[in-house]
Design goal:
It is built from one helix and 18 strands. It is mainly β. The chain has a single domain, classed as Jelly Rolls.
């Protein structure tokens, strides 16, 4: 269903009402290895050897031309230049899950709170990171509908910050995952090893999930738990800093059933990152079963706010042949 978008932001996208599909299990609290909230997700440290370059420069999932051409075309949602040459957008697949945070919490999310959820937007006692659902009176207006996810950090911690809801689902790959991120963070206050996470995806292998993540580290977008270890950057060069203080659209293409698996991400319509997922060989499973987005960060991060809106997952009938065009899930 199509809805009205806040004045001043890009039009033509779907209203952010939460849709809960039959492929998700809101009541399943248990998780392999006790890792309920995908706790080993964002830092890129342990699942794969840091020097494992895999086949990053070899044969990719479909053998297609992976080049990115062109210059910035000014179609970022704030009206300014986007990351680089827009290689085109096409609607892809069947929408199977969607959250615009319109139904509250838990709504379409797993009914589990690690202690980071704040119903009233205040920081829970004893914590330095939390998440809430903001309305139209928040500092960053929603892109769609009346609500938006907000996760924030006010101080450093001994362990990683985890302030986000979790999705347990069962969708066969390939899938397309489109979502929007608005980051407020002072890169000058972050060490070169500090990271702020945007997304975690994984299967549901009973021994250990084969998961992979996307974050910003040292001001640049990167993957973790993939091969090569930080992913291969394929966007315009030199790689720019990840933009702050504006909405950024991501679309991730996930394929767990081909070789070592494959992930590619578009930022504002431009292909920017790709990688294989070697842990799928050890922990096989071709379905997307675990995911989360939002404020997950290394413990040494002492400040920052992240907003999410319009998170959508679409299943695709077959693997993509064209890896230059963004497979927008709408």
């Amino acid at each position: 269903m199509v809805g009205m978008i806040r004045p001043g932001v890009i039009a033509g996208l779907v209203l952010g009402l939460g849709i809960f599909a039959g492929g998700c299990n809101k009541g399943e609290i248990g998780a392999p290895g006790g890792d309920l909230d995908l706790a080993d997700g964002g830092d890129g440290g342990d699942l794969l050897p840091s020097g494992d370059d895999g086949s990053a420069n070899g044969d990719w999932a479909d053998g297609a031309d992976d080049g990115v051409d062109g210059l910035g075309d000014g179609d970022a949602p704030d009206g300014g230049d986007d990351v680089g040459g827009d290689t085109g957008v096409t609607s892809a697949g069947t929408l199977v899950w969607h959250s615009g945070f319109e139904t509250g919490f838990p709504g379409e999310w797993l009914d589990y709170d690690s202690g980071s959820w704040s119903a009233d937007g205040s920081m829970p006692a004893g914590r330095v990171s939390a998440w809430t659902i903001d309305g139209l009176d928040g500092s960053v207006p929603p892109l769609f509908g009346d609500h938006v996810y907000k996760g924030w950090i006010i101080g450093s911690a001994a362990e990683s910050h985890r302030a986000y809801p979790v999705l347990h689902c069962d969708f066969p790959t390939p899938v397309s995952n489109t979502f929007w991120v608005y980051l407020e963070a002072d890169y000058a206050q972050m060490s070169s090893s500090a990271w702020i996470h945007f997304a975690t995806w994984g299967n549901g292998h009973p021994d250990k999930w084969a998961l992979h993540t996307m974050s910003v580290r040292d001001s640049k977008l990167e993957f973790a738990h993939v091969s090569p270890s930080s992913g291969e950057y394929i966007g315009p060069t030199p790689q720019p800093d990840f933009p702050r203080d504006r909405w950024v659209r991501f679309t991730a293409y996930l394929e767990y059933g081909v070789g070592n698996g494959f992930v590619q991400v578009w930022q504002d319509g431009v292909a920017v990152m790709r990688a294989e997922i070697p842990s799928l060989a050890t922990y096989p499973g071709t379905h997307l079963q675990r995911a989360h987005w939002g404020m997950y960060a290394s413990g040494d991060v002492a400040q920052g706010v992240q907003y999410n809106d319009g998170i959508k997952i679409c299943t695709l009938d077959e693997p993509l042949v064209d890896l230059t065009t963004e497979p927008l899930c709408d």
